[in-house]
Amino acid sequence: DLRKQARQLENELDLKLVSFSKLCTGYSGARDGRRDRYSSDTTPLLNGSSQDRMFETMAVEIEQLLGKLTGINDKMAEYTNSAGVPSLNAALMHTLQRHRDILQDYTHEFHKTKANFLAIRERENLLGSVRKDIESYKSGSGVNNRRTELFLKEHEHLRNSDRLIEETISIAMATKENMTSQRGMLKSIQSKMNTLANRFPAVNSLIQRINLRKRRDSFILGGVIGVCTILLLLYAFH
């Protein structure tokens, strides 16, 4: 009798799970068809829909059947433990394990289908909100759209100006660094020349003597040229 009851519940669960799976599969298409016939502003997306009510009803019925099947399995386990024929214990345990596996499979399938249905419903809700936002944006006046485009263009111009300013500042900083390096190089050369001049004072005095001798030779040569010029003039006028 317990096995007959278990089989009857398993058959009912199998039919319910098939219908439940079909409801989950056809939910998205039904939502799209309703959105084509009605406006999203006047028709609610999910609340009060026949699919949602059917989903809740079938989920409750399947949960009740799963509870009844669990109770039948528990009663069969009690009967198996109290059986007085040892030779039948192995067959009874095998039968009980088979019904437990079927119950586990149905429970897993139910929770999986339920989770998929809830995920599809949440996705449809999000898509409906996005479509509503898009429609509200499209229904806005042309002045607002034009103003938005102008704001975007102005924002792009500001970004371009900021980029040019940053490039100019980078060039100025590089030029400053180059000039600073050249200034340091010139100071280094000057310090080296001063060091050489201080290290070799004899060379400095020799250069000064050479300059004085060159100046004296210039004076002598100028005097000779002047005397020769005067004598030539006197000879010419004589």
UniProtKB/TrEMBL annotation:
It comes from the Eukaryota. Its main location: Golgi. GO terms for biological process: endoplasmic reticulum to Golgi vesicle-mediated transport; inter-Golgi cisterna vesicle-mediated transport; protein transport; vesicle fusion. It holds the Pfam family V-SNARE_C. The keyword Cell cycle does not apply. It is found in: Golgi apparatus membrane. GO terms for cellular component: cis-Golgi network; Golgi medial cisterna; Golgi membrane; SNARE complex. It is a single-pass type IV membrane protein. One of its GO terms (molecular function) is SNAP receptor activity. Keywords: Golgi apparatus, Membrane, Protein transport, Transmembrane, Transmembrane helix, Transport. The chain crosses the membrane at residues 219-237. Involved in transport from the ER to the Golgi apparatus as well as in intra-Golgi transport. It belongs to a super-family of proteins called t-SNAREs or soluble NSF (N-ethylmaleimide-sensitive factor) attachment protein receptor. May play a protective role against hydrogen peroxide induced cytotoxicity under glutathione depleted conditions in neuronal cells by regulating the intracellular ROS levels via inhibition of p38 MAPK (MAPK11, MAPK12, MAPK13 and MAPK14). Participates in docking and fusion stage of ER to cis-Golgi transport. Belongs to the GOSR1 family. This is Golgi SNAP receptor complex member 1. It comes from Pitta sordida. The lineage of its organism: Eukaryota, Metazoa, Chordata, Craniata, Vertebrata.
